[in-house]
Amino acid sequence: MLFGGSRSGKTFALVCAILTRAGKAPGSRHAIIRRHFNGVKTSIGADTLPKAVRLRFPTWRLDYNQSDSVFRLANGSEIWLIGLDDAQRADKILGKEFATVYFNECSELDYSSVQTALTRLAQNCPEIRNKAFYDCNPPSKSHWAYRVFIQKLQPIDRTPLANPGDYDAMLINPADNRENLPAGYIENTLGGLSQRQQKRFLLGEWLDDTEGALWRQSMIDSARVVNAPELVRVVVGVDPAVTAGEESDHTGIVAAGMGVDGDFYVLADRSVRTDPLGWCREVVKLYREYDADRVVGEVNNGGDLIEGLLRQVDPDIAFRAVRATRGKIIRAEPAAALYEKGRVHHVGSFPELEEEMTSFAPLMATKSPDRMDALVWALAELSKGGQRFILA
C-alpha cells in the first residue's frame, strides 16, 4: 500500500506498476477498483492511465473499449476499470480472474468489499506473481487499512494476520513529488489547511479520532461520492456569526440536497468571515447557483435582521428561520445518526467542514463549529427532523 498526502504520485506509481506487469504477462487481466465508477473512469481512465502510457511507455498503443471500460494492450493483456457502486456491472466483471487488483482510494472502501474483490485475484500467469495494490490519503487509525497494513491485524477481531510479511506499506508525500506540482501547491494550498488536515493531506499521517466526537473521518470517507444523483430538493443552511471582525467566528454557509434515492448530499461549503451584508451575498449566490428551494438560518442572534438583510440582496428568496432551543449535542445527534447509517454523502471534499465535524466533541467543545451547525440546519430541514428545533 502507498499512503500519504495529496498529489504525491501514489496513483501514477501504481498505474505504472500495473502497466509494467501487463506488458510482462501477455493475456493477463488487471483490475483498478474504486468505490464509484465515475471516479475511476474520470481520474484514471481519462487522466492518469493515458498520461502514464504517454510518459513511461511512449511506443505503446492501447485500445479502449468504452462500453466495457477496459484498456487492451497489443499483447492481449487487459486493464479493467471497476466501480463498486454499480453492483450489477461489478458482479459481472468480478466474475473474471485477475493477476492484479488495485484498490484506488481504499479509504473509501469497506473491508467486506475488499475481501470479496480479493477472491478474484486468481489468474494463473507464470510471468508474474499475483498482487494486490492499495493507495489512500490516510484516514483515521480506526480504518481497516491502518489495522491491516500498519498494525498487521485482522480489522474485525484484531487477531494477528496469518501472513504479515505479505503486507507492506510505504509513505509517499507531496514533497516527494514537488517537481510535478503547480507552484505554491504545497506551501499555499496544503499549507493553508487546518493543522489536523495538514497531517493527513500534507504529511500523510494517520489521524487519531477525537474522543467523544460524533463524526469519524472514516464515516465521512466511506460515503463520499464524485457526483450527486438527481436532486429533488436543495437547502442552504446558515449559521450567522454574532460579530464581524478578524477574530470573529465564520458564518457557516452549507448547501445540501436530497437525492431521488432518498439519501442526502453535501454540495458546497461557502462559509466566510465577513460583515452581515457580505455573507448574505454569499448565501444568495449559493442559493442561486444550486437553484435551492430554501435558505434555513439560525436567528437566535439577530432575529428579523437576518431575513431583512437577505431580502435586501434578493427580495424573493425563500427563507425559514430556526431557533436553537437545545445544546449543540442535541442538535447534532440526528445528523450524525444519518452519517452512521451511510445516508449522507459528501460530493467531493470539504476539509474545513470535515475538520469541524471530526474534532467536535460536544462535552469538551469550547468553540462554536459554524460550518457544522450550518450543515446540521440544512440536514434537519431536508430530513424533516424539525421536532428538535423551533421553526420561526
TrEMBL record:
Protein name: DNA-packaging protein
Keyword Disulfide bond attached: no
Keywords: Viral release from host cell
Start and end residues of each Terminase large subunit gp17-like C-terminal domain: 236-381
Pfam families: Terminase_6C, Terminase_6N
